[in-house]
Design a protein that fits this description.
The chain is an alpha/beta fold and about 325 residues long. The protein has helices at about 1-10, 30-40, 45-60, 75, 80-95, 110-120, 145-160, 175-180, 195-210, 230-240, 275-280, 295-315, and strands at about 15-20, 65-70, 100-105, 125, 130, 140, 165-170, 180-185, 195, 220-225, 245, 270-275.
């Protein structure tokens, strides 16, 4: 699947992934009114509103971007009905030719990690029938339980030709509380050789990546926040064959000019995420002229602007 993602990025000249992270405050009133009229102000009504909202955005941007990234927590908050909306969203995005990155941030050990991997990326035996769960193309994984939490995902990815984005340096302000901690190599007592923990994790990702290569890039990628461009430069060097999923663009402060170091010299190797900057664009002053009724058109305009910003930042 990494080969498919790379080709789509090259064809569209858009290393962009749209984060489908809906909350009810992003959903226009006319959509909520429609959903609540059918299902009431219930979990099912909320889930229907989210699904209709997503569908409008996907229809508006699917010819501009290679991938989407639904964040599962935004659906889980609406219980079982929300998870059904997540599943419908994944299936619809794939129908529209989009690569789907399931932002699930799972991380556990043994059979639990294997079950997560199978549920999101693989297939499960039900009697004599083989079934698929959510069936995303990629998933985000938290590696901080160690290899035990990651290897089951890698094994499923090898069988399915799917991929991972492993959290290395996240975009949130408090990520440094743990990820920036200086650590010494095992058995070393020389403080001068201490390195940030995120670099150690990056080296491990590079090791996993080398064992699961596509044509030019690995199926095993990394998550590195746009809010830390200098750290991105170091991690790009540490993980040369891993695609870097870069959150933090737009609403969290990242700009096109901050992104250059996340890419390789071939202009590839990174994909930039924007969530509310795109899906809630109509609520921003720059796109207010579209209004809530035309929220999807505002999202399309935001994607086009993001594409230009990234192009100027990388190639200028």
């Amino acid at each position: 699947m990494i080969n498919v993602l790379t080709e789509k990025i090259k064809k569209l000249e858009a290393p962009i992934v749209v984060g489908l992270d809906p909350t009810m405050k992003f959903v226009p009133e006319h959509i909520k009114k429609q959903a609540f009229a059918e299902y009431g102000e219930t979990m099912k009504g909320a889930a229907e509103a989210v699904w209709l909202f997503n569908k409008g955005i996907v229809d508006a941007v699917c010819d501009l971007v290679p991938a989407v990234k639904p964040q599962i927590a935004m659906y889980e908050q609406f219980g079982v009905e929300g998870m059904y909306a997540f599943q419908k969203t994944v299936a619809y995005c794939k129908e529209k030719g989009l690569v789907v990155i399931g932002d699930i941030k799972r991380g556990d050990i043994g059979s639990t990690s294997d079950a997560y991997a199978v549920g999101h990326l693989g297939q499960v035996q039900v009697g004599d029938t083989v079934c698929r769960g959510f069936d995303e193309d990629f998933a985000t994984v938290n590696p901080y339980l160690g290899s035990d939490g990651v290897k089951p995902f890698i094994e499923v990815c090898k069988k399915e030709k799917k991929g991972l984005f492993i959290l290395v340096k996240t975009s949130n302000p408090s990520s440094g509380e743990f990820q920036d901690r200086l650590v010494l190599p095992e058995g070393c007592t020389d403080a001068a050789k201490a390195r940030p923990l995120y670099e150690v994790v990056g080296e491990k990702v590079a090791e996993w990546a080398a064992d699961h290569m596509g044509e030019a890039y690995s199926y095993i990628g990394a998550v590195v926040g746009a809010t830390y461009p200098e750290m991105g430069k170091v991690l790009r060097r540490i993980m040369p064959k891993s695609y870097i999923l870069v959150p933090g663009y737009g609403a969290q402060g990242g700009k096109g000019k901050d992104l250059k170091h996340f890419f390789n010299e071939d202009g590839l190797g990174a994909i930039i995420n924007s969530s509310r900057g795109i899906i809630a664009a109509y609520q921003q002053e720059a796109y207010a002229k579209y209004g809530a009724e035309n929220y999807a058109d505002a999202s399309r305009a935001a994607v086009l602007d993001m594409k230009e910003d990234i192009k100027e930042g990388i190639f200028s």
